Amino acid sequence: MYNFTLQMPTRIHFGKGQISHLSELKESGSKVLLVYGGGSIKRNGIYDAAMKILKEAGLTVEELSGVEPNPKIETVRKGVALCKEDSIDMVLAIGGGSTIDCAKVVAAGAKYDGDAWDLVIHPEKIQGALPIYSVLTLSATGSEMDEFAVISDMTKNEKWGTAAPCLKPEMSVLDPTYTYSVSKKQTAAGTADMISHTFENYFSFETGADVQKRFGESLLKVMFKYGPVALHEPENYDARANLMWAASLAINGLTRVGNAPAWCVHPMEHELSAFYDITHGQGLAILTPVWMEHILSDKTAPIFAEYGRNVWGITAANDMSAAKEAIEKTREFFFTTMELPKNLREVGITEQTHFEKMAEKAAAGCVGCFVPLSKEDIIEIFKAAF
Amino acid sequence: MYNFTLQMPTRIHFGKGQISHLSELKESGSKVLLVYGGGSIKRNGIYDAAMKILKEAGLTVEELSGVEPNPKIETVRKGVALCKEDSIDMVLAIGGGSTIDCAKVVAAGAKYDGDAWDLVIHPEKIQGALPIYSVLTLSATGSEMDEFAVISDMTKNEKWGTAAPCLKPEMSVLDPTYTYSVSKKQTAAGTADMISHTFENYFSFETGADVQKRFGESLLKVMFKYGPVALHEPENYDARANLMWAASLAINGLTRVGNAPAWCVHPMEHELSAFYDITHGQGLAILTPVWMEHILSDKTAPIFAEYGRNVWGITAANDMSAAKEAIEKTREFFFTTMELPKNLREVGITEQTHFEKMAEKAAAGCVGCFVPLSKEDIIEIFKAAF
After folding, report:
1. Locate the Alcohol dehydrogenase iron-type/glycerol dehydrogenase GldA domain: which residues (chains A, B) (predicted)?
2. Which residue of A has its CA nearest to B9?
3. Which of A129, A240, B168, B194 could be A108's S-S partner, Cβ–Cβ 3.0 to 4.6 Å?
């Protein structure tokens, strides 16, 4: 097990009705910037419920709405301007990971003199942030309990992740019933996203991080069990609850620290989203089995075999056979069980014009990867996923 | 899954050499009360290393030494007096769970006007505490990352646990090499303690807390794998590291919240320690299999069977058979593999004079237990463990 430092300070209020805890925002001042997306929270009543609690707690609320599924730097800039003009004390995101990511960089931008894009490409410039709160409405990214945020500048086809300890939310409300209305498409994509996070933290050559590996397998078992249940019974509480909690734990550090993994698939997917604005979780699902096959070797077979045996109960004694079976199980889960699009053409990417440029950029993010990927490797993976 | 609130704010610095982070204590002021036990930290060099770092950081240090294995209220009172007389800013425990528990109640006592024993029997009276830091030297209780403390008044044969959010340490240093010198006896007892914590959080009739149950099984697998390794290879880093991290995670809330378990074995063991001052982990190991057998029924068999199948790989299809096999595996692990004392006589309890009084007190702590235990049940368990 490698040395690590870990702190998980976010106060989680989990369960039905926990939105009442929004009254706790008083602890951070009186002026709230409420950040949300396309307005679904107005249709499903969460907006009204939140506003009532905030007002009863004596808080005043400014709003930043219209956060995009791949949140754009222009929206962040608008939020930062609001914070500075109105001396906002704290930021409250109500939505999925995109909304929370946007709120995080707004909160950091409010404490920064330059342009917020600096904070996306130079995380070390984040020197502070307004207190961040969230009410989660989509189980996927884990942003509600982590220090990461991903922001895009579509004018430049750039999508990058940033991170800082001060971006961890003070408090997040996780009410599984808020995800009852999530569509089949988004439920499947969100499940693929959390599975991908777990994979990225799990696959490593470290043999002494048993706690982290067993925890990773635990989360995968939960996701494989409840993903299909949520798809077919959208109001199954236990399915929504387990997916929600598993997604938060998949990326809050618990499975990563001491295991020294290095993310491989996310850097490639970020290029897909940056150039084609596709749904992140769908991109991850398409790339993951192709990536597994591309890097399968005598060296990686034992790692994929361990995953197959401990998560899928594969019994093949030979590592290469067990690894191949595990990859096949993963593929089946994404494309048959979860009904996710199988290749890039199915998500509307009909030509390969940008693959070379995308691969060049992704390769920069794959340095120190579980199995290092060159530009040429990545082009091959994109083509195999086409 | 039940509703819950969870916060795990303790900053963990895990790994070899992480004691250097003691310089961070500056964040809480300048005057430290250093709390430790019988002086082993002076023999193994940890005391000198800590003092050097603290002094270089400009901190002044008062000392409370001689904390007992079952820490006594008299020692807590001494520490509280020191804090009040010398305007101590923070408390630093270097030791195992007993030392950290003592430091916690000292820290709370420093902020309380009455006698510190009040805070043990009335946790709700804990209204604040000095910042608490720890350097862990024994993997067992999880006190380094939780809100609990157990203190005894041996003059009254009383041993009670108290708890408050402000008792969670600010920061804990977990260096697995500091446990290399832990004796076989204490390694086995510590492993039994962490296993018992995991059991107590794991066994429940809740069927929707999959994340928590899978995490509990993960921790048990790690403990069952590495307990014997640490016993026979005391300087095996991965064994000491996995046991250390698993012990912290077993009781920091992660496996308990949402699963609504209720502790059964600890209340019984606390009476054994209160009346006979035995080693806590040994008492837990002796009682656990007897307790399991006592409550085994058609209703509990599926729960023990799930444990057996998921942790021990038991394949019996019939729940009662699988449950019995799981209990037998547990017994074998404690008494054969870990060489722990098998019954109360082996830890020096040679008469049953106090069983009735002990059972009466333990029964008060077993209200709302996984399977409720009456005074008569507990007497039977004590006798079967004799």
Report:
1. 9-176
2. A9
3. A129
